[in-house]
Amino acid sequence: MAKLDFYFSPGACSLATHICLEEAGASFTPKPTYTRKGQTRTPEYLALNPKGKVPMLVIDGKVLTENTAIMTYLNRSYPAAKLLPAGDALLEAEALAFVAWCASGVHPVMSRFFGPQNFCDLPDSTDNVKALATKAAMANYGLIEKAVTGKDWVFGAWSAADAYIFVFHTWATKLGLDMSGFPNYAKHAERMQQRPAVQRALAREAEAFAAMDKAA
Ligand SMILES: N[C@@H](CCC(=O)N[C@@H](CS)C(=O)NCC(=O)O)C(=O)O
Fold first, then answer.
1. Which of 53, 64, 118, 175 to mutate to test the pocket of ligand 1 (most atoms within 8 A of CB)?
2. What is the pLDDT of residues 146-184, one digit of tens each?
3. Which residues, in sequence order, are bridge partners of residue 6?
4. Share of the chain above pLDDT 90, in %
5. How confident is the model at residue 213, as a pLDDT?
6. How far apart are CA 56 and CA 41, in angstroms?
7. 55, exposed or middle or buried, with CB in 10 Å at 0-12, 13-18, 19+?
8. Is the distance from CB of 110 to CB of 168 less than 8 angstroms?
9. Strands (E), the chain
10. Residue 49: predicted pLDDT
């Protein structure tokens, strides 16, 4: 098996990949890298990943970035874990479309809450940026709600898509967004928290979070 070094920041979108690594039963070295401390922007980190982002998986010395790509790699490398649906070309593509939408349609909207100044630097614009972000986030959460209504997991069996949407639910909780319109999504988050692999990933991230203050 390849040697894996996994770079993540506690609570960031890298949690989706973290959960997949645990679900796959992969053996990996966790490398907590704190975005809030600028650790993805150091010369050393940028030399590996010029995008300055987590997640990053270093596989036998080769760098792989982007949740979508890492999940696809893990799915191929640990087929028994069935991280993505297999066997039906259309279903496989639909799962990839969902994961790609999480990365390109959901995540960028949430980034507006975490860094409103990166979207508009006019004076006193923060509230407006967040108000627009809330509208867009609610539309996305509505689509996610539909995707988990009448079933436990987005694609019937558990998949990486479930790990990804779980991250956005944790962000909604942290941001104090009104999620009362999405009861099935809330139940999905509860089901996620019952999975041992999710518990292991969350415990490691909590440990890393607690260590953050001591980090340089
Ligand atoms: N499209 C990327 C998004 C990665 C991303 O934006 N990661 C954020 C954390 S959620 C990050 O590393 N931010 C640090 C920074 O921009 O300095 C993916 O899906 O992997």
1. 53
2. 999 999 999 999 999 999 999 999 999 999 999 999 999
3. 30, 57
4. 97
5. 80
6. 13
7. buried
8. yes
9. 4-8, 29-32, 56-59, 62-65
10. 98
Domains 4-82 and 89-196 belong to one CATH topology = no
Assigned fold of 89-196: Glutathione S-transferase Yfyf (Class Pi); Chain A, domain 2 (1.20.1050)
pLDDT in tens, 39-65: 999 999 999 999 999 999 999 999 999
* Ligand 1 mutation pick, 13, 49, 110, max ligand atoms within 8 A of CB: 13
Q: Report the amino acid identity of residue 136.
A: A
Query: Which has the minimum average pLDDT: 121-130, 153-162, 207-216?
Result: 207-216
Q: Which residues line ligand 1 (CB under 6 A)?
A: 12-13, 35, 40-41, 52-55, 66-67, 103, 107
CA of 31 to the centre of ligand 1 (A): 15
CATH topology of domain 4-82: Glutaredoxin (3.40.30)
* 154 Cβ contact partners less than 8 Å away, ≥ 6 residues apart: 95, 98, 147, 148, 161, 162, 165
pLDDT score of 134: 98
**Counting every residue, how long is the chain?**
216
Beta bridge partners of 30: 6
What is the predicted pLDDT for the residue at 212?
Answer: 87
Tell me which residue of 178, 134, 169 sits closest to 148, measured CA to CA. 169
